[in-house]
Amino acid sequence: MTTLNITDRIINLRKHKNLSQKDFADITEISRSTLSEVENRKNKPSSALIVGIAHAFGDVNIEWLLTGIGEMIKFNCDENNSHIEQLVELVEPLNTERRSEILLTIIEKRRIYDMEDVMMQLKNSNLFSE
Asked: Distance between CA 39 and CA 114 in Å, rounded?
């Protein structure tokens, strides 16, 4: 079985949504050149791209995006949407380095069964202290 990396999952998501690179970049609020560099494996996906995907596509399973675990699309996105929005609100004002640390914390968790638990751990961690 081949395991897709995060770049492959982003490409699959864009194609699943039937979006051009330009449209996907516009929706996720990154530049088309940045997306092109990610898809061509010249650069790794930035935290801004990950946050943009979480914000723009409420039906996307963020656990799948970050780790490859689970399905691409959530079956019941309404109950998890507010958690994603809260996470995005927490992460957006932070600098790029801090956002990356938070996303790495989520990735390291590997299995995210309860987004509230992850958010509580992030709120209680030292990542939000200056």
From this structure: 30
Angle at 99 between CA 127 and CA 125, to 5 degrees: 20
Ordered by start, the domain boundaries in the chain are 6-128
Cα 66 from Cα 114, distance rounded (Å): 15
Fold of 6-128: 434 Repressor (Amino-terminal Domain) (1.10.260)
- CA–CA dist 80, 63 (Å, integer): 12
**Main-chain dihedrals φ then ψ at residue 60, nearest 5 degrees:** -80, 135
- Is the per-residue pLDDT at 33 higher than 90? yes
SS (H, E, C) 55-113: HHCCCECHHHHHHCCCCCECCCCHHHHHHHHHHHHHHCCCCHHHHHHHHHHHHHHCCCC
Determine which helix (DSSP H) or strand (DSSP E) holds 33, and give its type and residue range.
helix 32-39
Q: pLDDT digit string (tens) for 54-110?
A: 888 888 888 888 888 888 887 654 555 566 666 777 777 778 787 777 776 666 554
